[in-house]
From TrEMBL:
Domain Protein zer-1 homolog-like C-terminal residue range list: 409-763
Taxon lineage: Eukaryota, Metazoa, Chordata, Craniata, Vertebrata
UniProt keywords, alphabetically: Leucine-rich repeat, Repeat, Ubl conjugation pathway
Gene3D superfamilies: Leucine-rich Repeat Variant (1.25.10.10), Ribonuclease Inhibitor (3.80.10.10)
SMART domains assigned to the protein according to its UniProt record, in alphabetical order: ARM
Gene: zer1
Coiled coil start-end: none
One Pfam family from the record: ZER1-like_2nd
One CC-aspect GO term: Cul2-RING ubiquitin ligase complex
Name of this protein: Protein zer-1 homolog
Family under the similarity heading: Belongs to the zyg-11 family.
Cross-referenced InterPro entries: ARM-like, ARM-type_fold, Armadillo, LRR_dom_sf, LRR_Zer-1, ZER1-like_C, Zyg-11_UBL_adapter
Amino acid sequence: MTAKAGDNPDTLMTLATVFCLRNLRKTMCYQGFGNELCLRSDIFLPSEICDKLVNTYMELLHTHSNFEPEESFFQLFSDPRSTRLTRVQLREDLVHDRDLEAIRKQDLIELHLTYCNSLSSRSLRTLTWFQETLVSLCLFGCNHIFYRKGGAPLACNEDSEEDDEEGHVSKRALETNFNFQGFNRLRLLNLGGLPDEVNAETLLKPLKSLTSLDLSNVQLLGTAFLSQWKDRLASLVLYNVDLSEELICTVVELVNLRHLDISRESRRTSKFKMTKRILTAIVQRLVNLVSLDISGQIMLDNCTVQQFEEAMGHPSIEPCKSSIYPFQDLKRPLQFLGLYETTLCNVTHIPAYKVTGSKNEDQVLNAIEAYTEFRPELAHRAINQLFDIARIQHCSQLLRALQLVIAALKCHKYDKSIQVTGSAALFYLTNTEYRSDQSVRLRRAVIQVVLNGMEQYQEVTVQRNCCLTLCNFSIPEELEFQYSRVNQLLLQILEPARQDESIQRIAVHLCNALVCQVDNHHKEAVGKMGFVKTMLNLIQKKLQDRMCDQVMEFSWSALWNITDETPDNCQMFLNSRGMNLFLECLQEFPDKQELHRNMLGLLGNVAEVKALRPQLLTPQFIVVFSNLLDSKADGIEVSYNACGVLSHVMFDGPEVWSMEEPKRDSVMEKMWEAIQSWDVSSRRNINYRSFEPILRLLPQSISPVSQHWATWALYNLVSVYPSKYCPLLIKEGGMSLLENVLELESSHSETKDMARKVIEQCESFKEDPMETNQGLDVNYEQRG
């Protein structure tokens, strides 16, 4: 059997790391004073393990809702004699000043801080502890790290813990006493999003040996300072930096550049226009260039060859054949060329191995890959284009597309635009057309990010997209690994009284499917979450609106499923005015056959619970059930279920029948008449997982009509669907009970005849198990 896309298992290192992080007190740590987490004294961990622990901890916090942060987690790595950290990646508001201070004695080589807006200038002070070892530093989007809390100077407040660690910096006092003096080993620096008040030139002046610099979205007051690295700088990113002739002249002096990014967001206004002359100068002067990004730039004049020449031959990456004139001067094809949101991405011959753009699927996927981490505004648009490809055309790189969208949703959990477009793309990428190519592991990863989106956003579009995507999965099988979580989320969606109608319909459908054919302990657990009450609230609302729609019918169907062989849920139904709602629905919607079938199926489950039957034994309810024996709604289903309810009530004997009217005998007579009117070859809209509630009605003489109903039910099921129900009846000991029916004097002759036929059918099936009678149209969405 060949492996499916995305089926590679986690490494043992990853599995062990996650296990330790989820069980810190049972593996590496013990509970210290004041509930503080402390590392065991016999633990000594190398940097490979420590780095993995910290980085995985951040990932779990960011992507797993059931993973709780440990306030003293970073304190575990405070002593370099027992733990060694070298490469750490921290992101977003989960990181505080105290966390960096806890690891200040470590000899960090790489420190990546991304969107860490809870950090203040206290963390700038902490950075100086790493100045002798730090080689790579990222402060992308850490907008508050250059501001003091409460206006305290950097040099003071050395040991103060009075700052509000949990909030952002409220009093914006710019820190002016910090620069990179002493960071002599620093080679790679990302200052993307540096506040306008911070002078980049002053901040960077002490750094003499930079080889990579990212100044995305930074306002540059001057450009000459870049020349100090003209012999060293290999990578320069100036995304959304206001370009000028002066800046371009400085850039082309950086002759050792291998990667240059002068792209911009196309919707951002700019006075600068990219010309053929400027692009030619970049290509001719920067001869070592292997990667160039000019995405979003507007070309002032024509840089491409004539259309009739451009269309000649198969697409080529050879520079000499380039459809873009300036690139004909390249010595070799570029490894990467960013042309996203430019007209240049549409030409035929592009001299690059990897191109971002919107011309085709490959360019779009390259754009998502290149821009997800630091440019969500571009990734959002590229994912939207992937959505169109998956919806209208066909996605040929399914595994890559899914992995990129999943990564984007994980990375930008709090970005609504990414969540909307990403969840919409996932809906089309997981539908039936692509399903056979996807592994269990990959589909589980999709489910995880979809549930993350549902947790984070109550917004209608995200909720609808996520619910629709879940409908692409086999339910409940594929969702069982997140069973409790997905049910909880769906019930939360259904709580608001005036929820969006389409989301309500999808969510109720999912709830119904989730409680269909699962073990009773799952149903009991979901019942305790408030499932029964939520469904009854929806029914109450629909009654008020006098509307019997899919939500109403699905809600009763879900109640039918969740009460199957679960007495506690049946009790909840009765305690929550369920019977009153049943009567009101019956009166308000007398002609809704599907509704009647679902309601009677549910009440059949209630009637199977001996302790609850007295609550059904009232004149009002017995008259209703008796009248429904004559119903022809949905074939025999309503009449069959009404008779089932009465069969269990009758089984308790005449002594419990305390009412004057209707008479017990007259109701039993109507039951006999109803059963004799049914066609025993009827196909059914019902699915039994167990015959136990039926079988208990066989060996008794208290209520022959109940015995007859049970025997008829068995004969119908084993004759119409032998391959499903003959083995079930044999397995549950039904054959011996049917033999007992034949021996009882109280059993009616019609009942005995039918019991013999059931026995003969099962015996025949045992001899010829290939007989199926093509009974494949059972509705498996009902009763368990």
